[in-house]
Amino acid sequence: MKLRVCVRLKCLWFYVCPQERRREFEANLEKEGLELETEDKSDSKDHKTYFLKIHAPWNVLAKYADILKIKVPFKESDFPHGREVPLEFLSCPFRLPDSIIHPQPDYFTSPFDKNKVEFFLISDKSTFFPPSTRNRILCGSRVKSRNSEPESERYNLYKHWARFLLWGGWLSVKVCFYISKEICDAEVGGSILMCPLCDKKCPFWKLNSTCLSSWQSHLFDNEGTVFFAIFMGIWVTLFLEFWKRRQARLEYEWDLVDFEEEQQQLQIRPEFEIKCTNRRLNKITQVPFNRCARYSLSAATVLFWISLIVACIIGVIAYRLAVYAAFASIIKDPMRRIQLVGRFITPQLATSVTASCINFVIIMILNFFYERVAIWITDLEIPKTHLEYENRLTMKMFLFQFVNYYSSCFYVAFFKGKFVGYPGDYSYMFGKWSKLRNEECDPGGCLIELTTQLVIVMAGKQLWGNIQEALLPLLRTWWNSRRGRHNPENQYSRWEQDYILLNFTQLGLFYEYLEMVIQFGFITLFVASFPLAPLLALCNNILEIRVDAWKFTTQFRRPVASKARNIGAWKEILNAVAILSVVTNAFIMAFTSDMIPRMVYLYAISRDKSMKGYISNSLSVYNISQIPKTNMPEENWYDNSTVTCRYRDYRYPPGHMREYDHTMQFWHILAAKMAFIIIMEHVVFVVKFFVAWLIPDVPSDVKARIKRERFLIQEYLHNYEVERLKLQLSASFITEPHSETTLTPDMTLTSDKLEVLSEC
């Protein structure tokens, strides 16, 4: 229990105001065998703060290393070092040279036993336990001032690794694109008059006015994107499988092979012990009443915040519907420069960009508040163990972040432009009384708008996250310098300089995991709409590594070491996102992209197996005289000789017996889309599961090392026990000689012991 109190301090030095509590705490530490050293307050800058340094002698370290079953070396490894990952040589330019990191030889390790000290390779007791182990046992290791250790490990990391200019790399991108010539052709696109895209404010417009946006859309909306989406579905599986192998290797190298999850379950949170004292059980459910109420409140809070996100998304959609008409109404000469804001921006693009920016601001605001709410409701549930606390917080945070970051992308991908209606019977968001007509896709397709949304939200999040990580510690450092707390290193002790650094909290790595998982979702769930998303992620990760390296070596105190066999709940989240990404990309290619209609036209409609005539085929005809007055422009901005306009759909023309009903081509395209989804999903899933089955989770050399280590532990322990028994028998013969008859039972007993040991 006293050790737990030390762990909760999470620091190497501390200052306790109440004198009695401080003395009692120090007395408890001394009872445990720890050595205390107090720095006089006159040596501190403010002449008020005492710094208490805690030293752990060998007997304390050995005691708790035995209790915690910490694995230590007993024999140098005789196993050849295998290749860690395929193409490992590519990462050599990014690694520190051996002259700086001073690599240690590989050892076979075994759980420490304080009664068998001679069994382990102990050359120097003061350095036998590494700093991370002593940190885990004591919440800190022996402190040395900067003057006595000018080249500390932290300084070496900062000097040779953490600076921004010490990295490099190369990237290459090849993009295949298809340009629709018919849209830009004056004789084709210039002769097609399109129906208004909104009521009253939007005029009739020429199709060739969207030439630029159409060209931009076809940068990503092409046949190559299908193969890239399939490749990414398989790449996700390879990434996760190779991560499992990497995890297995680290698990062995960091002595976590025999680390039981039950050890984490035994780490009961102090908050649980303090608050869960009196619990009344429900006689029927046998569940504590208080616990049911807390869980109900927690679930209601999560649902409320998710509903709040949905409400904000609906508000942004309403903004898009309203502002589009405003952008369209500023056009003065619609027949020449129809729907151009400036020179290159259409009202659709301007609306999409502004709405995406507003949505990003809302995301950041909601995220700021919900992070605190998630921690509050998790604390309210009072989880029993630290592992349970982290898993619950992980699920709450990811569920909220998933809805918060991805909901707008799901709307653009799967809902926008799908429920529009047609000129005589348009659909409205809240009914016709709202006058908010459901928005249509950009003339170049909805894929370019999904790309815009994805780029703004993803890049904005990355930029804002890096600014926060770099700027906030700098502001704190600047504020401390203004207050006179940040002083030259040669003026004050090392521990006082580190005292003003930021404390690395228990949730420090949690936010790093969350950031990477959200980024993983961006580059997998919607990669079909923006194939360059992995490139953005790579650039961000390079910058993130540099920022984190600088932050950990200059702005934070040393974290308290803790053990874990894997990344916990994040592993299951990554697997779920990987499976969902196959479905989302298949639906994006089928329903958001125009690839399927083009393929149907090319192979089933076109007589010469070319794309000639595709634009005219994909647009339906409507009689202008049949458009209701509520949908007509305020001014008749079109040639009176033109009696029809075109719109994006597959419907029968006016005068047909099934006027304005869906044509058979519409149903053929819908069937092709569903067939494509089924085929793509099954192909990718079959390949995914085959690759997952083909690649073992644990490398063969790691398996061999583990078996070799376990064999050597048994062999060496057997030999060690035999030698120790021999020494004990020899000592007993010398000190207490017996007759031949009295020795027989002892010898028989010793033989039995040796026989039992030999059975190992």
From TrEMBL:
<dbReference type="GO" id="GO:0005254">
    <property type="term" value="F:chloride channel activity"/>
</dbReference>
<feature type="transmembrane region" description="Helical">
    <location>
        <begin position="573"/>
        <end position="592"/>
    </location>
</feature>
<dbReference type="Pfam" id="PF04547">
    <property type="entry name" value="Anoctamin"/>
</dbReference>
<keyword id="KW-1003">Cell membrane</keyword>
<dbReference type="Pfam" id="PF16178">
    <property type="entry name" value="Anoct_dimer"/>
</dbReference>
<feature type="transmembrane region" description="Helical">
    <location>
        <begin position="302"/>
        <end position="327"/>
    </location>
</feature>
<keyword id="KW-1133">Transmembrane helix</keyword>
<feature type="domain" description="Anoctamin dimerisation">
    <location>
        <begin position="19"/>
        <end position="138"/>
    </location>
</feature>
<keyword id="KW-0325">Glycoprotein</keyword>
<protein>
    <recommendedName>
        <fullName>Anoctamin</fullName>
    </recommendedName>
</protein>
<keyword id="KW-0812">Transmembrane</keyword>
<dbReference type="GO" id="GO:0005886">
    <property type="term" value="C:plasma membrane"/>
</dbReference>
<dbReference type="InterPro" id="IPR032394">
    <property type="entry name" value="Anoct_dimer"/>
</dbReference>
<feature type="transmembrane region" description="Helical">
    <location>
        <begin position="397"/>
        <end position="415"/>
    </location>
</feature>
<dbReference type="InterPro" id="IPR007632">
    <property type="entry name" value="Anoctamin"/>
</dbReference>
<dbReference type="GO" id="GO:0046983">
    <property type="term" value="F:protein dimerization activity"/>
</dbReference>
<feature type="domain" description="Anoctamin transmembrane">
    <location>
        <begin position="202"/>
        <end position="709"/>
    </location>
</feature>
<feature type="transmembrane region" description="Helical">
    <location>
        <begin position="666"/>
        <end position="695"/>
    </location>
</feature>
<keyword id="KW-0472">Membrane</keyword>
<dbReference type="InterPro" id="IPR049452">
    <property type="entry name" value="Anoctamin_TM"/>
</dbReference>
<feature type="transmembrane region" description="Helical">
    <location>
        <begin position="347"/>
        <end position="370"/>
    </location>
</feature>
<feature type="transmembrane region" description="Helical">
    <location>
        <begin position="224"/>
        <end position="243"/>
    </location>
</feature>
<feature type="transmembrane region" description="Helical">
    <location>
        <begin position="516"/>
        <end position="538"/>
    </location>
</feature>
<comment type="similarity">
    <text>Belongs to the anoctamin family.</text>
</comment>
